[in-house]
Known about the structure:
Ca(2+) binds at residues 394, 396, 443, 448. The structure is a single chain. The chain is an alpha+beta fold. It folds into four domains: 6-134, Immunoglobulins (Immunoglobulin-like, Sandwich); 154-459, Transglutaminase-like (Coagulation Factor XIII, Chain A, domain 2, Alpha-Beta Complex); 494-602, Sandwich (Immunoglobulin-like), CATH 2.60.40; 608-702, Immunoglobulins (Immunoglobulin-like), CATH 2.60.40. The protein has 14 helices and 37 strands. It has a six-stranded antiparallel β-sheet, with helices on both faces. β33 (636-645) and β34 form a beta hairpin. α3 (185-194) packs across α8 (273-287). The longest helix has 15 residues, at 273-287. The radius of gyration is 29 Å and the shape is globular. The two termini are 49 Å apart.
Amino acid sequence: FLALKIADVNWQSKLNKAAHHTSDYTSTEVIVRRGQAFNITLNLQTTVQSADNFTFIATTGPSPAESQQTKAIFNLSEEGVSGWSATQAPSEPGCMNFTIFSPANAVIGRYKLKLQTVSGNKVSSTLLGQFVLLFNPWCPNDDVYMANEKERWEYVLNDSGIIFQGLEKYIQQEAWNYGQFEEDILDISLSILDRSLNHRQDPAVDVSNRNNPIYVSRIISAMVNSNDEKGVVEGKWNGEYYSGTNPLQWSGSVTILRKWYRGRYKPVRYGQCWVFAGVMCTVLRSLGIPTRVITNFNSAHDRNINLSIDKYIDISGKTVHLTEDSVWNFHVWNESWFIRRDLGSFYDGWQVLDATPQERSKGIYQCGPASTRAIKEGDVNLDYDSSFVFAAVNADYVTWIHYSKKRRERIYSDTKKIGKFISTKAVGTNSRVDVTANYKYPEGSLKERQVYEKALKLLGVRSTGKKPKTTRPRRRSSLAWRQNMTQPAQKPSISGKLILDASPVIGQDIHLTLALRNLTSDFKTIKVKLRASAILYTRKPKAEILQLSRSVKLGSEEVKEISFKISYSQYKNSLMDDRKMLVTAVCETKKGASLLVEKDIVLQDPFLIIKVFGPTVVHKVVNVQVTFTNPLPEVVTDCVLRAEGSGLLKEQLRINVARMAPMESSTVQFEIIPYKSGTRQLQVDLVCIHFSDIKGFVMLDVAPA
């Protein structure tokens, strides 16, 4: 029996990729999914009578071992101890066909496959090649199995999407290029796992845990931020981004992941929540874990997890920082789909993961996976970080006026403000789907109050008996408390509302009206202090824009309107990189009764018009025309038009726009050559130092060549 001589190995890459739903990966490597067979053909130089003495060895990680499930030794047609097996299929003379089976709980990652043959007492070993093994949402025995084909297409195979932002009353769509199949992205995702703290501490144990989506997704949630282990994105929330990129300017994950990889793992500056979530979605989808992006409007960041967010303002309406708690206009996180062997099948399904570095979990900035079922049922004691996510969608919002160290007055407790319009992109379309009901029972229902009580109890935050974890003034029995939406400390004697006279547009003055109503029959003089500030989406003030004081006389049950404007010249220097503003009015009567009226304003985008000329076909040139307008009453210079889109442009395209006169429209043309068929998202972004980005996108159906 001669030693086996192999001329070459045909990994049947095209057929295997089609069968394993991995054809979209740009890589030439063999990429297959676990729990499913793949085929290889050996073309031989010598003839072999039988393959009975063939042994296959599959290994992954730096120190493969059978005990760690990182090494599998298996012979033909009998299943190995580890669940790997091989069978021989009929073949032409001079070649041998084999089918290799991996178990549905195999470790994911890059494998080497060796063939060992025994001839007499001589053992020879040949490296057949490498392959990458991924999670398999198509396999019923895989922990990430997803039964619905349309959902698998959306949450695993769709490489573009929509991230919702803005305000609960003004929800905006932002396009995002996930690009999980683009060149290098799978390699980068695997290298993210190899750079984690766990891997550095004990590579063998870390790799052996990579069969578990709970473990893998938690590691990724830590690695997408740079806080502990020089992860991918560095967060910054103070409005100054000179030493990096303004988070609002990113429009996809590919540029960020490549920058991190090519820059020798130096964290990419800068990200905010939607950037962390967009990048995490790319990495998890590339590894085969079904993942989506979720936006929670009025999201609580409850530092001490006592389910109460206290906001303090002084009598002029300025925020006083007496607490680390905050309410963000929106916060973006991820959900991934898998079963919870650690918690029990009740908690299977969508799991919350959050890569934005807000709080440490077990010493590291990571968050999740927290089961959405656990959050809905108030099981805040369950792994991982379900209490933090519960607070983000359920905390009460309590407003205080801070007069001095000794005197503060609680003016409202709002039990319905937090956790509104929890949103994600629909399956198969760009419309918004509301998933609030996955997180909580209807506001004000008995069940919702019972869940809230249960959570308070589990967190040890009680208004009776037990001392709460916080030294702050606690509310009365929370059940009574949650029955009213806003409970002023005393019955209000005035009410007020801030009204925008028209949709606010960048470059134009903003006209507002404060409508005040006397709720009682006695005459009142009201001192009004108005303030407008530029804010981040976290509602953290960045710059003061305007302060006004007025005195208003109100007769019995009278309504009066105060009109005022915020001129472009007043806000232009504060809103160059963002378009968010907070207007507050503190109204006080002589008797000391106080009213706070707040309004969040987002200045609207000037439109950007994208025209695509002719049909889009793979490898055929197509012309694109983009028209946009300078929204400002002044000349702007040094703008850049950027375009990107997976399957349309291999790298981001940049075109300089030299000069635009006030209110002038400009048109730019460029060519794209699509390289993938199917529905594609082309994103266009006008970047300028004088105003925040103007973004647009168009969906293209690209026909095969």
